[in-house]
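Hey, sorry to bother you again with one of my protein questions. A protein chain has come my way and I'm curious about its shape. It would help a lot if you went through both lines with me. I owe you a coffee for this, so here goes:
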Amino acid sequence: MRKKISAVIIGVCTVGVSVLATGSASSHGYTDSPTSRQVFCANGTVQNCGEIQWEPQSVEGPKGFPESGPSDGTLCAGGNSRFAELDDPRGGNWPATKVTAGQPYDFRWRFTARHATTDFRYYITNSSYDPGKPLTRADLDPEPFLTVDFGGRIPDATVTHTGTIPAGKTGKQLVLAVWTIADTGNAFYACSDVQL
């Protein structure tokens, strides 16, 4: 009887460790200010989002953007086909956060698993951007408007970076936030639609 109980306990512990390991491996981070597409999917504001509605923190793809990283048209999903709904422009109808060009804004990341971090970079679309088409590198200003070096440190559970939305931006635009991990080959991507 003791052997059976011990086997059951060991089995339950093994399953528990496996579940916890899997959960932390698939849990990382996302932006919620301005509200990202994955958050709009997770909170039910946007429907028909597929798997991302349960995993807003998991938009992980290859790092090195913009020289490498996800291919054009897959940037909002980090090149991850499981979350392709994030790349669907939905006719330009993603909800947008109101921001003001030339004014400071607090950009916020929330983390469910924290990693040693190289940096955070924020890009914004240029005048050729069409909200009705999937995002490409050509749609973005070539340089980030905000870069926060992190020197390999591990961030807190929530981090806020204050940056200025570039002057002269008008209409519906998109902010691409990239969190580059120091000790893996990956980064996390978040697209936030904004209205200026």
User: Anything to note?
Assistant: The CA atoms of residues 114 and 156 lie 7 Å apart.
